[in-house]
TrEMBL record:
The lineage of its organism: Bacteria, Bacillati, Bacillota, Bacilli, Lactobacillales. Its EC number is 2.5.1.75. Its cofactor is Mg(2+). Monomer. GO terms for biological process: tRNA modification. Keywords: ATP-binding, Magnesium, Nucleotide-binding, Transferase, tRNA processing. One of its GO terms (molecular function) is tRNA dimethylallyltransferase activity. It comes from Aerococcus agrisoli. Pfam families: IPPT. Belongs to the IPP transferase family. It catalyses: adenosine(37) in tRNA + dimethylallyl diphosphate = N(6)-dimethylallyladenosine(37) in tRNA + diphosphate. This is tRNA dimethylallyltransferase. Substrate binds at residues 12-17.
């Protein structure tokens, strides 16, 4: 039998955290973070990481998990999420994957892989293999980061065979490896899934996002951004590209006013929310949609859905 997995997705500001905690408490569950920026330590306000009080209400995995100076690939997330799920199930608990990073959710629940044209260049493969033997896997991985950053994000540096394959495709075909079609059209998952997505009226969602940014400022977003800048990280570091911080960097460099930077943050957050919704609608099958912002009474329907799913 497939292991049961509850997945809660949706844009920022629609109540994913509250719902996941409610389900965890009602059904003996534990939460696996599926947000690519909540992975990072010390980036709590700008990423809307569940508060310490919220974390005390249910067990959370993969939150504040890695240092801001580390890279964190989709491949590593898959491995870490699988380990967390095995641990949760092994203790008789229900795993609940929660987040807004579509590629994280999709890659895990469908065991996502990237395909491509059959481009073969044995001499190139040998050259890259020799480079890895001489200078280490990171030397080859750096080439992929330069050629195809999106593919590099999805592949672990130590997965040398796949790194070389991505370089091979990007170098000798007419498209980058990351531009090739994903190979999970059948949407078969190794898990027994219950997919729940939250949404609300678009204008109301945007209003809530704008208000959330204003609240983040009161909760210490500016101080958190200053701290991140003080780490003197490479601008290409994943944590430095997080929505919530990168929009404020110009303000601290005296290149923009605070008002303009916050407006940019609100705009980017709204655009990101739209992309989150589009991803779920286009990439996930069998999703149960709920609007708990405007219709909180429908929580009972959600809980009944979860109960029936777990009883099967």
């Amino acid at each position: 039998m497939k292991a049961k997995l509850i997945v809660i997705g949706g844009p920022t500001g629609v109540g994913k955290t509250a719902l996941s905690i409610k389900i965890a408490n009602e059904f003996n569950g534990e939460i696996i973070n599926g947000d690519s920026m909540q992975i990072y330590q010390s980036l709590n306000v700008g990423t809307a990481t569940p508060s310490l009080a919220e974390q005390d209400q249910a067990v959370h995995h993969l939150i504040n998990y890695v240092d801001v100076g580390e890279g964190y690939s989709v491949a590593r997330f898959k491995a870490d999420a699988e380990a967390a799920m095995t641990d949760i199930i092994g203790r008789g608990k229900v795993p609940i994957l929660v987040g807004g990073t579509g590629l994280y959710l999709e890659s895990f629940i469908y065991d996502l892989s990237l395909g491509g044209k059959e481009i073969e260049n044995p001499a190139f493969r040998q050259e890259m293999t020799d480079l890895a033997a001489k200078e280490g896997n990171d030397a080859v991985y750096a080439k992929l980061q330069a050629l195809d950053p999106k593919a590099a994000e999805a592949i672990h540096p130590n997965n040398l065979r796949r790194v070389i394959r991505a370089l091979e495709v990007g170098t000798f075909s007419d498209r980058l490896f990351s531009d090739q079609a994903e190979t999970h059209e059948d949407h078969v998952s190794p898990y027994d899934l219950l997919l729940i997505a939250l949404d609300t009226d678009r204008q109301l969602l945007y209003k809530r996002i704008n208000q959330r940014v204003d609240m983040m400022v009161k909760e210490g977003l500016l101080e958190e951004t200053q701290w991140l800048l003080a780490q003197n990280l490479d601008p290409d570091q994943q944590s430095m590209k997080a929505i919530g911080y990168k929009e404020l960097f110009p303000y601290f460099r005296n290149e923009a006013t605070l008002e303009a930077s916050l407006e940019e943050l609100k705009k980017d957050s709204r655009h990101y929310a739209k992309r989150q919704l589009t991803w779920i609608r286009n990439r996930l099958d069998g999703v149960h949609w709920f609007n708990l912002v405007e219709y909180p009474e429908r929580l009972d329907t959600v809980l009944t859905l979860v109960n029936d799913f777990l009883a099967k």
